[in-house]
Fold these 2 entries.
Entry 1:
Amino acid sequence: MSIASAALAISLFFATQTFGAQYRFSASSRHIWNGDLSTWGARRRLEAVRHGISDPLPGTNSSCPQGCSEHGVCNEELGRCDCPRHYTGPDCRTVNPDLEEVCEEYGFSLRTCRETSPCFNSCNNRGKCVSGFCHCHPGFWGMDCSLSRGPDGGVELLAGQGYVPRREGPKIYVYELPPNCTSWFNIKRLDRPLHLLFWQRLMSAGLRTTRGEEADFFFIPINTRALNAASITEWVLPYIRRTWPWWSGDGGHRHLIIHTGDLGVQEYPLTMRRQLNDTFSNLTWLTHWGLHTYHPGPKWHPAHRPGKDIVIPVMITTAGFHLSPLNPSIEQKARKKGADLSRNGTFFFAGRICGDRKPPNPETGECSPRRLDYSAGVRQRVYYHHYNRTGFKVVPGTRTYLEDISSHKFCLAPTGGGHGKRQVLVSLMGCIPVTLTDGVHQPFEPELRWADFSVPVPERDIARLHEVLGAVTEEQVATMQSRLRCAAQHMFYSSSLGAIIGEDGRYDAFETIIEILRMRKQYPDLPPEQYMDVDERFRKFTNCELGGPEPDVLCAQGTERQHPDMPTCTECHRHVSQSRTGSSFFSWAGGMVCCSELEMARCSRVWQ
Ligand SMILES: *[C@@H]1O[C@H](CO)[C@@H](O)[C@H](O)[C@H]1NC(C)=O
Ligand SMILES: *[C@@H]1O[C@H](CO)[C@@H](O)[C@H](O)[C@H]1NC(C)=O
Ligand SMILES: *[C@@H]1O[C@H](CO)[C@@H](O)[C@H](O)[C@H]1NC(C)=O
Ligand SMILES: *[C@@H]1O[C@H](CO)[C@@H](O)[C@H](O)[C@H]1NC(C)=O
Ligand SMILES: *[C@@H]1O[C@H](CO)[C@@H](O)[C@H](O)[C@H]1NC(C)=O
Ligand SMILES: *[C@@H]1O[C@H](CO)[C@@H](O)[C@H](O)[C@H]1NC(C)=O
């Protein structure tokens, strides 16, 4: 059963509760929100117009061929004239003769290729959104028109809008690539757009720098899931090395790429990996697939190098998670109603067990044929040994997914046909993850100590899983459960997507990546499993105990306000979205943490 339908299940589960009373967040919270959305939005719009559209041209001489800005955008730094899909040539004045091919390659039909489509960060109010392409006003350039020349000739970010870099960094440089590597894609059909959410947050969090010479890291914002991902990667890496001087500084070791594929870097064709081996090896990959040792069952080759690459959580976006028992407002209401919140079941898993969608044989518990390439056979073996055990619920599907996940202590968090998302999902639902696939690191492992809030089980112990879990004491369960409330925050991209368990976003997945990068910068040779021992701030961060000023709360998903003065994400959306280019995350400048702010440079900055 999918989580989407599970959301319905949990709504029914909690349907008897009333949602009247406000959940009190914190008396000392500071708020920028005055509750009056409409006036506020209008004022912002006016200011945006004043800063952007009527700005005088920073210089009358363009470094691009004359006429470029008629249909295209001049990247003044490089003198590169960037064209939308429909135009081509050195000055973007030739109608693209290969339009049909190009549209198809980027996920459109010829018809949908011309339709309106949202623009990245709504072009920061300094350009016109043309079918997903920011046609920036002359003098501005970049995927979202955020760049322009400063008085000293250097490149400025969000000039005139008050961009303030984060004091302690790390500073991250983002390559502005030609639009055929970034904005030409059909945003409505993008699979796993984490590289774009990350890019948005780098700006709204004050971490982006336009000065390569002061950068600690370099982000290459490419899509690794498209059909043409391999050819784009193959083109981009040499392009970066010959266009900017930053790679040669250190052989590309501090260059980051987010790869969201099931098998991470292993998804690139072998010939290409061989050919680019030196380049690929030097890059730092941020991937969901934490396999670091060859796995003989499914013949999986490692895709992750601990200490060099970083395993990052899958971005789950499914509606309904705000109904998690970890959400204080949901929990409080359930308690008021006298609902039973105890987790009296021991172990739960519902989902695909055999590689195909067929259920295992109910007599023998086996899949036919046995397939080791799916989940390394872990789901099949767990089912085979435990499907009829008291206190265990291991099923191919259930109509009561969220009730079950909320009423069992331990939940299986296996891999799928490569990386899995269950460890993220069950953590957010407060069920202790049982991580079970040999040689696989979980998100942010070993930087986070997974054994503190999960039960890692080696595959050889699958048959005696009930004994392993039986040996965990009540006290240990309680400790893990209390730690899970913090660990779950590291698993979710709250600042991009909105709050779901009452969190303020300070410890979300984005901030956790940044915190790990900060450690990399500060202690380049320290093994990541020792981060917590040597750095007090890192230890406090991982335990969600930074202290300091209470941040402004995030807008919350669902119908519940997290704080009376703060709108829900839906309310933000309703009131402000008409002034943006469409309603996708993509057009929401800076992510949900900026939901009430049209100018991303001004949105909430409470993580200094
Ligand atoms: C434009 O270029 C010309 C010749 O290259 C130069 O004389 C002039 O000062 C430039 N104008 C600006 C505003 O940079
Ligand atoms: C993208 O466009 C550039 C020109 O700006 C071109 O040289 C390059 O081959 C294109 N790359 C891909 C992957 O289409
Ligand atoms: C990779 O890094 C090494 C140093 O660690 C350097 O010698 C080599 O040139 C780099 N390769 C590339 C392609 O930059
Ligand atoms: C890349 O090079 C390393 C050694 O430098 C080697 O172990 C690895 O197998 C190579 N990968 C590919 C895909 O050729
Ligand atoms: C847990 O308790 C509920 C009643 O509160 C009961 O219906 C359910 O069967 C129990 N589950 C287990 C696994 O004992
Ligand atoms: C499941 O276990 C019960 C006893 O706990 C047993 O009576 C029943 O036959 C078992 N079912 C299967 C399919 O093994």
Entry 2:
Amino acid sequence: MFCTKFLLLLTYLIKITVQTSSPSSTSYVAAVLEYNFENDTAANLRNYLIYIQEASSKNADIIVFPELTLNRGQDSIEVPINGALKDHPIPALAADLYHKVLVDISNAARQNKIYVVINIEEIMDCNTAVGEYCPAQQTYLFNTNVVFDRDGTIIDRYRKINLFGEFTRTPALRPDLGVFTTDFGVTFAHYICFDLLFQVPAMQVVDKLNVTDVIFPTMWFSEMPYLSAVQIQEGYAFAMDVNFLAAGSNNVRVGSSGSGIFSGKAGALISTMPGLPTTKLLVATVPKIPGQVTSSPPGPIYDNPVDHDSLTLITDPSLESHFTRLLTPGLSQFTMISGEVICVFKVNMTENEPETEISSYKYRAAVFNGVRSYSGMATGGIRVCSVIACTGDSLDTCGKRFPQYKLKSTAVFHELNIIATMPTPVIEDEIQARDTIYFPLSLDTSIMPLEPDDYTYSEDINGNVTTYSMFLDRYDKELYSFAIWGRIFSRDGQEEDPKLPQETTLSPTEETTENQDVTTEHQDNTTENQDDTTEHQDNTTENQDDTTEHQDNTTEHQPDSSVTHLISKTILITTFMLLIK
Ligand SMILES: *[C@@H]1O[C@H](CO)[C@@H](O)[C@H](O)[C@H]1NC(C)=O
Ligand SMILES: *[C@@H]1O[C@H](CO)[C@@H](O)[C@H](O)[C@H]1NC(C)=O
Ligand SMILES: *[C@@H]1O[C@H](CO)[C@@H](O)[C@H](O)[C@H]1NC(C)=O
Ligand SMILES: *[C@@H]1O[C@H](CO)[C@@H](O)[C@H](O)[C@H]1NC(C)=O
Ligand SMILES: *[C@@H]1O[C@H](CO)[C@@H](O)[C@H](O)[C@H]1NC(C)=O
Ligand SMILES: *[C@@H]1O[C@H](CO)[C@@H](O)[C@H](O)[C@H]1NC(C)=O
Ligand SMILES: *[C@@H]1O[C@H](CO)[C@@H](O)[C@H](O)[C@H]1NC(C)=O
């Protein structure tokens, strides 16, 4: 390690003044590290110091490290933000009071004049802790972000609220949000990994704190077809319209990878989703107003999809509770409904000509309005309208990837439109956070989302229901999924929906019919008190049926499914007009 130290010393000596962002700048420079960590705190710490220096040399104002890639297990760190740090806030200047990790990172932040966000396993001993909330006299372990400013001062500490298993650790004892303000005029919120999927903190930091910039250390376990790492990172930045700095732990064997810097509706300024063990520093200039990109950012870094043969991907267990319909080549146009979720699909697809005798993906249109499990760690309310790839004809093959990537095994979509009518999100006064969120999510064979220019997404609010439309604009994409995927937080913690009975294997057309019946039946059962409304709607939508007939007499038309209890006449018309577009 002599070599490393020597290099570090040398670079300090030749270091020239760095340019930093100021309150009047329209942008700042951010760095995030995709990090293939070592099982050794000292080695990780040495690497961190090198990347802090490298980020600074690229004029970064802030660097974000991933979740739990520094210390683990026996090496937990105290962060006495209400104790010693009150009097001695710069660990670099009070080395005897703090763990070496805090001292060295503080020193590197000072030397390089850069904000640093690290994530560590924190230990708190309530027998000695000063100024801390301690419900029990015991030792606690937390999953914690620690923020250093350019002087090496520790300015914030945030403890993860939504643990993903992590049985040795305790969730934050109180749901305190992570937030800090910088000398370049940007206020950042920060949270950790699984937190992204919950109202507190992921909605609350934006709705209550009104921040436009969010920091996200993560060790994500990517899941098909909706929740792979970069896919949901970009989806969050887009839907919440924030800048999002995501640093991912890289451990492809267990499915962890994926980092990026995203800017609202402009998508990824830079992003990476490695299929192979990778450490990579991503740096980008971030506009202070999300989405207002003026420079030309590096953009997504696409790996060869063959590399993703090595990336473990799990499958959303709720897919088997989705009502689905197998898509056949050619044009199909239909509506699927589950409770208050109405999905209108228009799909024109052809199967790609496989180069060799390879299997190709089948696709299903799906609707789900229920509760899912996250790998048994928690449950959450979900609303979705989607088209997803499957490796076979039955539902249990969906959300999976063939073990070996082959070119042209996906379908070609000449047209792919989804129009979803969903209840409009409402801010809950008590916690000042929206009760629902819908994300445009997509996934291609490089386990990356479509870029914003590849599709058109819009929302049309009509009182308590909103119509979200998502139209594919690029037809050369190899797609695993295309979805409007929502979280309905009021259903969190409820029991997950059961799997639907496996369909019998029939010819595609008959299977489709069978499927549709299930949807209708479910509909009848859950909406008995809505019967009156349904009657009314029947009449108003009759002429809509004609429109559909005209539009397309080549596909079988779903006679009753377009009639719904919730949907108003206006929305139906809007929906169909969008569809005709
Ligand atoms: C990490 O290191 C610890 C202690 O040296 C050892 O017990 C553990 O097996 C190691 N884990 C891995 C994944 O190498
Ligand atoms: C929230 O931020 C916006 C600009 O980003 C500002 O116009 C608005 O006044 C802020 N609202 C509150 C409550 O701080
Ligand atoms: C489906 O797309 C193909 C290829 O663009 C086109 O030739 C065909 O006319 C389309 N079918 C319909 C019914 O629009
Ligand atoms: C929307 O409002 C209408 C009329 O006020 C009501 O009948 C309906 O139940 C509401 N729907 C939802 C999802 O809140
Ligand atoms: C609908 O209700 C009927 C009668 O209550 C029941 O037999 C049937 O299994 C239910 N179907 C579904 C999909 O829940
Ligand atoms: C709707 O149709 C039903 C029977 O088809 C009829 O009884 C009812 O009067 C109609 N309502 C309207 C508003 O046209
Ligand atoms: C579509 O409908 C028209 C008029 O009803 C008919 O002449 C034509 O053959 C139909 N096309 C197909 C493909 O069924």
